[in-house]
Each structure stands twice: as C-alpha cells, then as structure tokens.
Amino acid sequence: MTVHVDGGSDWYDRLRPDSGGSAPLYGSEEIRSDSRRRVMAWWRGWEDSAAGSWIAEHTGLLGALSRENSRLVRHAVVGLVLFGLFGLLVVYMLVGGDFPIAFLLSMPLLVAVFSVSMLLWVFWDAYRDSSERLVDRLSVRPGMATRRQVAERLGTRAVLRTVVPAVLPGMLERARIEAGRRGGSPVWPHAWQAAMPVGYSHRIAVWLSDEMHVYVLGPARSGKTVCVVIPAVVEAPGFCLVTSTRSDVVSATRTLRENGVEDASTGARYGGGRVHVFDPEGLGGSDPATRHNMHWTPLMGCDDPTTAMRRAQTLVGVGGLGQGSNNREWGVSAGGYIQALLYAAAISNLPVSKCYEWSLSPQNAREAADLIRMHTPAGDSILQWADTLQGLEHMDARQLSSEWFGVRNAFAILADPKVRRCMNLPPHDPGLIDPKRMVMDGDTVYVLSRPKSQAGGGVNAGLFAALLLDTFQEACQDLALSSAAKGSGGNLRKIEPPARFVLDELSNIETWGGLRNAVTQGGGNGYQLVMVEQDRNQMIRDYDRETEATIWSNCNRIMLGGVTDRDSLEWWGMQVGRHETTRREYSWNPGQGPLGGFSERTQSEESVLPYELSQLPHGWMIVQPVRMPPVLVHAVHFMDRGWWKDKEER
C-alpha cells in the first residue's frame, strides 16, 4: 500500500492511505497495543525504582502476579468492590437508612474504588500477555540467582575484593607500595580494568571476570551485537582484537577506541590506542574508517622453523585436512610442504605471493628447495625440508595430486589480486606491525572476512584471520611468560591490563586450530576470549563435540532470547534445576459435608521450561558464571551506556 505522511504524534501514526478510503490503516487491537506498551514502560520504571525493587525483593508480589493462571488482580478487584459495598452499607446504617444520603456521602469512596479497579484492569490487560510478565516470572523462580548471590559474587565490591587481586596483581602491588610511602599517590585498580560489565540483575551491576572466557549464544537479531559485541570491544581494558563478517562493528567502535571515551557514571576510561583494520577483501568499501590499513604478512616470524610449523598446521586445518578430516593423512604431508614453503620465503625475505606461485604446481616448489639449501648451513636438520620438496619429482602422479591438494588450497585466496596486494610485503620490511608492542600499548585490531562457503566451494580471507589470531595469541603468551612474577604468592605472570579477543561468529569465518589451547591458557596469562555464536552446533561442526564441550565448560556462559536448539535449552534448564511444589486438590462427595475435602501432594518439577528460555525478550539474557546459578540479566544497549553519552557530547 502506498501511503503519505501528514501531522501526528509518532511517525507511523501519520501514515494515511492515498486512496482516502474509509478503511483504517491499523486495526483497533494494533492501536491498543501501543497503549499497552506505554503501561508496561511505566511498570518497568516502577520496578526499577527503590520502592518497586524493595517490594519485589521482600514480598511475593511478582511471583503471585506473574505465575500462570494468576488470579491476584481478579481477587483484588473483587476485594475492592466488596470493600466499597461494605463502606456504603456502614454509611447507610449511620444515616438511619436513608439510601440517597448514604450514596452521596459514599460517593468519594465509590469513585476511588471504581478508579482503582479500572486502573488494575488496564494494568492486567497490558501485563498478562507481555514479555515483562515472563521476565518477572523467571526472576523469582527457584534456582535462579537471588539478589544476595548476585551481590556476593558478581557485584562491583565483589570484583574489587576477589577479581582484581587475581587479574591485576602487579597494579595492586604497586598501588600498595605507593600507599605505604609518605606522601605517596597510589593509583588503585578499578573494577572496569579487571572485569566485563554485562548488565544489571536485581538493580545490581553484573561483572564477569576477565580471567574467565565468555561463550555467548544468540541467534540472528537477538541483540548480541548491540548488547554484547560492541560493548565488549569499547570496554576492553587493554588490547582488543575483533573478528567480524561485516564492517558495522568497526563503524560503531573505531572512533571510540581510537580517541578514548570516559563513562561519567563509573569513572571508567576506555581506549585511546592505535587502530588497525585488516580487510584484504574490501568489506569496508571506500570508507576511510573501515579501509584496510594493516601492514602484515603471514610470513612474519616464519624464519623460525617452529613458527613456520605452527603456521603450516593452521593452514592445513583451514584447508580441510586437519583434525577430524577424512583426509587427515594427506594433511600431514601437505603440512610438511607448506612449512617448507613458508620457511623458504621467510629466510629469503620474499613476499607471500611467492608461496602462491610455488603452490600452483609441485614443479614450481623446486625453487623453494633451492633457497632453503642456499641459506642453510651443511648438516642442519632443516635441509630435510628441502629434501621433502625435492622428493616430489619422484612421487606417483596420483599420490602427488592428493598430497598437493592441501598446498594449493592453503594459498588459493591469494589468487585474488586485491588480497595478494594487501599482504605482498617481505617479512623483514621495517614497516610491518609489532604484535607485542601493539598488545602492550592497548591497540585495537579489526579482522574482517567474508563468511566461508558452507558448501565447500570458494575461499575467503578466513585463513589469514586464523593466522592473525595465532600471531597475537602467541604475542600474548610470550609477553605473559616473559613478565615478572607478581601477586601475593609471587607466582602470577600475566598481561596487565588484560587483552581481549572478541570472536564474533568466528565459525562463520574460519576454523581456528589454536582455539582450544587459547581457552585453556588465556585466562591465566592475561587474555580473554569472548566467543559469540548463533548456536553451539556451529562450533561442533567446525571443531568436534569434545573440543566444543571443553570450551563450553571453561567459559562463563551467556544466552540471549531466540535460541531454539533443544540440547542447549535443556542444558540451561538443568542448570536452573528442579524444585518441590505442593499442590492442593479439592473434591466433594455427599459424605464430606457441605465444603467437601481437599488433599495435598508434593511433587518435583522443572523450575523453568524450554519455551520460557527461548522467548526471552530483547535486552534480556541468562548469564551463568562458572560455579554459580544462572542469573537473569537486563543487558544495556551500547547507546544507553555512559561512554556513548560522552561521545555524543563531544
């Protein structure tokens, strides 16, 4: 229908049919839905107030109001009517039975009863089918974290008491030493430097320690980008690396990370380092803010045989011949060839495009073998790598084709001139990035790539994303292991402030072979992974069930609304648990008197049902920190955070 706009309140209220017909554009129920939304906005405001919070925490109002088949409002209205009639009767008796006089004197009471009854009816009409009712119901369910538990384990004071000493031992130790000096000016660490704020529960700020990784589940349009990803990037206390298949995260956060922002409500200060964009496929278009500007080559460090071997294993895994592949035996052979090509190019200070040329045919790889011999002293075991390449000349053609498939596939993306041009730098170029310095300086790296093809055809820049993750994960490991021991026991070696890797739908980009090791080592060494996926099956498909389970069990978990995977919903239901409930049943027969009889029975039932978890409204999520009951959290949209207001004021 074509419409035009004239005067009105909301823009969609100003739409009118061009035909000028009598048929309304909206039905009456649609109009009433707007009124109900306004009522629920008032209800949310009241719940967030001090009085509303106290009543919710210290009375059973929310439980009685939100449970299924609740009759609380109906009983309240009946009670009010009876109260009004009783008042009328009392006045009637006091005036000697003169009904007109009694009615006039009781009019204020009757008007008040009628008004309150109508308000209750309007409220119930808006509340009974609303998402607020579901949220209220979940917030009081047995098995969900209580206000006391949230304050004890996840509140700001709890972070300062338990998380800061573990995550920032060096900063805390220096502050204590400075405080002990006469006239000292200690700089004490803050909660925002050691933990990640995810929202509010029971009006208490909820923080997740940067020492634990975070696994986020949220289907498309569930709000994970605006409520989790963008805040996680902007609020990273130190270095931050972000993967994405779109440039929207870069557009929303680059200026904030580059210039730095302050949250006036908490005093937190974020960002302020250099920003690097890795976008060889040009997803960011011509926008200067999202254009590729990162001087990096996958050959960096490959003049070290150990690094070359690690890079080769990553490329083999990306090529589909790694762990869990049906062609794993060919992957072992391909890995040997790839590591030799990488090493030959690195020691000869050649660009990665040379590896692409060598990968086109085994005959081309002879040049790499010659370069290894040229730069390697006699008797060195690395000469075996040259022999491996030289042996291709005498291999059976069918076997050669199978083994060389992984080599061609590993460098196939370099067939794109645009991609090749972005990384066609020699590995000893003085203008290349310094990953360790970037981590120490708190820089930000955006890694963009097109989604990989699920059909197996075509290639993307995901293999370079995996290599970049390897590069910066190794830089973090080296920095942590080379740092001085800190902490009360003198046994903590970690990056301060911690680094953060925000892996937004990494499974849609490429399989990262180092993910499992990063999860098991990262938290203790001062870098945190925030993994954002649409469902757990994405991770299971790209890795395997055992690896995904290991990652899942070593993370704090977050689930947004809209998840429909049965296994995931059942898992969350198990974490909330079961509770005992008493049911009273009434019956009547002639031998039980006029009121009949009743019986009670106690039974165990699920505290939450799968459909309730799946229907979580936008802006709400279930958070389950390790060794804690699940927490119902109201997430804060990035535009509602204090640092966004600071940006707008600028």
UniProtKB/TrEMBL annotation:
Its main location: membrane. This is Type IV secretory pathway VirD4 protein family protein. Keywords: Cell membrane, Membrane, Transmembrane, Transmembrane helix. The keyword Phosphoprotein does not apply. The lineage of its organism: Bacteria, Bacillati, Actinomycetota, Actinomycetes, Bifidobacteriales. Belongs to the VirD4/TraG family. It comes from the Bacteria. It comes from Bifidobacterium saguini DSM 23967. The keyword Signal does not apply.
